[in-house]
Amino acid sequence: MRGARRVIALEPEETYYGELVENVELNGVEDRVIALNECAHAFTLTEITVKYEVEEGVLKIDCEGCEYVVLAGALVETLRRFKEIVVEYHGSPRPLVKKLVEAGFKVTVMSPWTTMNGLPVGFIHAEK
Fold it and tell me: Where are the domains of the chain?
């Protein structure tokens, strides 16, 4: 709705995936949004960037704690296919920041805005 040429959205939960597909249809963006009923992990991220020829993309990760698995295992080359990455973190942002800096990003960690299960929850913004 904000001008993206293509959006690839992953939703592993079947119920929420159905809602994702319904929202895509209700908003009339089927031509630009690819909805995948998949779980996010490092291998998936690499597969998607290759399959859909992602270059200079924007990556948003909001996966309730699996951000560490996605980024820790991601290849630096895969992350470099993005010009901007926004991650919601649950816990310490340090390992995520380390990986993003390693991939060549300038990283800003925003102060936690809440806690979940006793862990701070906040956002990381990374850009080239």
Answer: 1-38, 54-127
